[in-house]
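Exercise 7b. Backbone tokens:
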């Protein structure tokens, strides 16, 4: 089992003015739903996945800030893919990771 630097990621988020909402397995959900983070097999790398419903230009500043704060903490926050959220049942959500190219609905 790989140890994940959740404490460091939380510090990076807080220093960027963002809050961690929930962590589950390798995923980190933020207080807003424009993107989420995913730990990789490399302990110092995290993927940033963008919600397909988010306007990427609205997230550009936040993503750049987050990547800069990660670098200050000797981590790399790399661009992941897009994802889609849907309600699976009353208590669970479904996350679908999409191909790198943003889907057109």
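Sequence design result:
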């Amino acid at each position: 089992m790989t140890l994940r630097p959740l404490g460091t990621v939380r510090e990076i988020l807080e220093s960027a003015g963002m809050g961690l909402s929930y962590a589950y397995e390798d995923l980190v959900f933020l207080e807003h739903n424009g993107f989420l983070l995913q730990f990789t097999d490399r302990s110092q790398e995290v993927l940033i996945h963008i919600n397909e419903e988010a306007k990427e230009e609205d997230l550009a500043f936040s993503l750049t800030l987050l990547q800069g704060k990660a670098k200050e903490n000797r981590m790399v926050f790399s661009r992941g893919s897009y994802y889609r959220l849907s309600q699976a049942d009353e208590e669970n959500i479904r996350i679908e990771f999409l191909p790198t190219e943003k889907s057109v609905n």
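Instructor comment: Residues 82 and 102 are 7 Å apart (CA to CA). The helical segments are 6-15, 56-72.
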